[in-house]
From TrEMBL:
Biological process per Gene Ontology, one example term: regulation of DNA-templated transcription
Record InterPro entries: HTH_77, Sig_transdc_resp-reg_C-effctor, TPR-like_helical_dom_sf, Tscrpt_reg_LuxR_C, WH-like_DNA-bd_sf
CDD domains, per database record: LuxR_C_like
Gene Ontology MF terms in the entry: DNA binding
Domain of life: Bacteria
Name recorded for this polypeptide: HTH luxR-type domain-containing protein
Organism: uncultured Chloroflexia bacterium
Domain HTH luxR-type, residue spans: 604-669
Gene3D superfamilies: Tetratricopeptide repeat domain, Winged helix-like DNA-binding domain superfamily/Winged helix DNA-binding domain
Length: 673
């Protein structure tokens, strides 16, 4: 009916004259009548890409495959679906988008070409042979002929936009079409043209809060061939590269800021386009654009866990003879260093960081030079050289303060916190660091990196839990809430791990098992992506031993069957579900502590009554943060006497150290009159 749209008003007249009349017609676009009821006829369901292998019985039950097999048997009665050809059939039906005519056209040739051979032809850009059947019009005997028929229905501007859509991969948004298809030059509005192409079933509307569109793979191939035939391919690909380079650089500028996650989410659906744009820059020798693209893109790829592919691309760029601007060189070297570090290649990482540091220094970029000193400090910690790590981190902080480089200042504290809770950290170091964290947390909350904020809050909770778990719950909750809104793999995977360290011993067996299994699965996902162990970075042997104990006790409590069920449930959690599980565990611990403390007022009164007047004076001085020597001078007693009183207070109040003593005194009101 799309060829006879001018007759649509006649249909309306007929219906008006005969109210009981119903007209059923097929058309590639709406008739645009008020009483028209549109029923879309979608492609037939075909196997999805996520499943790599299909049992034959499941495969032939899918409508798209069933049609292909039915028509293949009509062409060749000996055709059979077997384990050997099932994968090829599944991929061919996917490649043909489940379009009934395309499946019939392919099935008609099974006597000459098996499914794998047909697929190979399509992948090489070759059409399937013509179907010489006499009971179909010529336009339906090949897929290109059918699309030629559809193309002829478009005006010149629509045809130009349609063929330029052939350069996209994996879909596109309206603004991308406006720039890449150059709709302003054509004198048309990008959204209006897309709406028309959607109505004509040449473009699919994918929906979402940010409208997104796509072509079926078969239509995409056709549009691409039309673009090449018009000699517009190179120019359109250049516009595609320019658009996605600009998009990636906008995301790069948002890195370490509050909008970082929003931009990472914006790039997610564009991964195929980003790779295509980078490939075009490389194959056409546009070296400056290549360097800008990899400098802007590497962190996004890292955040998606695509470490190895990103590493290969950055190293390939570094190996080329082109000499970029120094700041650009430093950025690419940083990316290569981070990826090498997470992949466990510390020697390569050190080389890249040092070269990047030299480039930043030569460029006079003090802030970035400070940042790279921090990278080298982190690397030294990985290599088991804590003294070098702390020295480089201190140098980073000093240099960053000279130019007020707030991101680098915050990172210095994140690194220091990592060192404090890592294998080389000590309780004394954690106690000293705890008092310094207000500055970096304020920087991070005020427009800083959300992922660094999440990690630093989790580390603070881990340190506070050594003295009083109640004090750890507030920063842990904030950390988990921040983590719930971000998805930077593998970095924030440390947050649920630290939550488990703080909470697991205080949870019922089933919930503790689910949480530990979820954390173990997340650590395994990081390792599978090539990332080094977060537990090795942020965990002490004591932490690991404690969680092993919790798991053993949970198994003993639950029994093998219930323990296995809870473990399977935890292991199946997505990262977002794992964070939600950790928050639920925190709620449970909070409730238990509240119940424990509901009778604490009487206990506190008893404890206060057990303290001598002199012990109460000493306790007040401890809460004020004074040393034994300072307390002795204030109370006119010897330091040894003060030491005895402090020891007595620790025993009476059940505290592990002076900070714990101060926390208990304030929380239980022991100094109130």
């Amino acid at each position: 009916m799309e060829q006879l749209l001018a007759a649509a008003p006649d249909i309306e007249s007929l219906i008006a004259a005969a109210p009981g009349l119903v007209v059923l017609t097929t058309s590639r676009e709406p008739l645009r009548l008020r009483r028209e009821q549109i029923v879309d006829v979608p492609p037939l369901p075909v196997p999805n890409r996520e499943q790599s292998s299909w049992p034959v019985a499941d495969l032939v039950a899918m409508p798209g495959v069933a049609l292909f097999v039915e028509r293949a048997l009509a062409a060749d009665p000996t055709f059979a679906v077997q384990e050997e050809n099932a994968g090829g059939i599944a991929e061919l039906c996917r490649r043909l988008d489940g379009l009934p005519l395309a499946l019939e056209l392919a099935a008609a040739h099974v006597r000459l070409l098996d499914p794998a051979a047909m697929l190979a032809r399509l992948e090489r850009g070759l059409a399937l042979p013509r179907w010489e059947t006499l009971d179909l019009p010529p336009r339906q005997r090949t897929l290109p002929a059918l699309l030629d028929w559809s193309l002829a229905l478009l005006n010149a501007e629509e045809q130009a936009v349609f063929r330029r859509l052939g350069v996209f991969a994996g879909g596109f948004q309206v603004e991308a079409v406006a720039e890449v298809a150059a709709t302003d030059e054509l004198g048309v509005d990008a959204f209006d043209v897309l709406a028309s192409l959607v109505d004509k079933h040449l473009v699919r509307a994918l929906g979402g809060t940010e409208p997104r569109f796509a072509l079926l793979a078969t239509v995409q191939d056709y549009a691409s061939r039309q673009l090449a035939a018009q000699s517009e391919m190179e120019q359109t690909r250049d516009r595609h590269l320019t658009h996605f380079l600009d998009l990636t650089e906008q995301a790069k500028r948002a890195e370490l800021g509050p909008d970082e996650q929003r931009w990472l989410e914006r790039l997610k659906p564009e991964q195929a386009n980003l790779r295509l744009a980078l490939d075009h820059a490389i194959t056409t020798g546009q070296s400056d654009l290549e360097w800008r693209m990899v400098a802007a893109l590497w962190f996004f790829l890292f955040s998606q866990g695509d470490l190895r592919w990103a590493m290969e691309r950055l190293e390939a760029t570094l190996a080329r003879t082109h000499t970029p601007e120094l700041n650009l060189l430093a950025q690419v070297l940083e990316g290569a260093g981070v990826l090498a570090e997470w992949l466990g290649d510390d020697q390569r990482a050190e080389s890249r960081f040092k070269r990047g540091l030299a480039a930043a220094q030569e460029a006079g970029n003090t802030a970035f030079a400070a940042w790279l000193l921090g990278r080298l400090g982190s690397l030294a910690a990985n290599r088991g050289d804590p003294e070098q790590a702390r020295r480089l981190n201190a140098d980073m902080l000093t240099l960053a303060r000279t130019v007020n480089a707030q991101h680098a200042i915050a990172l210095a504290f994140v690194n220091a916190a990592r060192f404090a809770v890592g294998p080389s950290g000590t309780p004394a170091e954690r106690e000293r660091l705890q008092a310094t964290l207000d500055e970096p947390l304020a920087l991070l909350r005020d427009g800083g990196s959300r992922r660094h904020l999440a990690v630093l809050l989790a580390v603070r909770a881990r340190m506070l839990a050594e003295f009083d778990v109640s004090a750890a719950l507030l920063p842990l909750r904030e950390s988990l809430e921040v983590t719930r809104g971000i998805a930077v793999a593998p970095i924030v995977g440390v947050v649920p791990w630290l939550a488990a360290v703080v909470l697991a011993e205080r949870l019922p067996a089933e919930r503790a098992t689910r949480l530990l299994a979820g954390v173990a699965a997340e650590m395994a996902r990081v390792a599978k992506g090539g990332g080094r162990s977060l537990i090795d970075i942020y965990g002490t042997p004591a932490d690991r031993a404690a969680l092993v104990r919790v798991a053993a006790m949970a198994r003993a409590t639950l029994g093998d069957e219930a323990f296995a069920t809870a473990t399977a449930a935890g292991g199946a959690l997505s990262f977002g579900e794992l964070v939600a599980e950790a928050l639920a565990a925190l709620d449970e611990v909070e409730t238990r502590l509240a119940l424990r403390d509901s009778g604490a007022a009487l206990q506190a009164a008893r404890q206060a009554n057990r303290l001598s007047p002199r012990e109460r004076e000493v306790l007040a001085q401890v809460v004020a943060g004074h040393s034994n020597k300072e307390i002795a001078a204030a109370l006119f007693v010897s330091p040894e006497t003060v030491k005895t009183h402090v020891s007595s207070l620790l025993n009476k109040l059940g505290a592990d150290n002076r900070q714990g003593l101060a926390t208990i005194a304030v929380q239980r009101g022991l100094l109130e009159p």
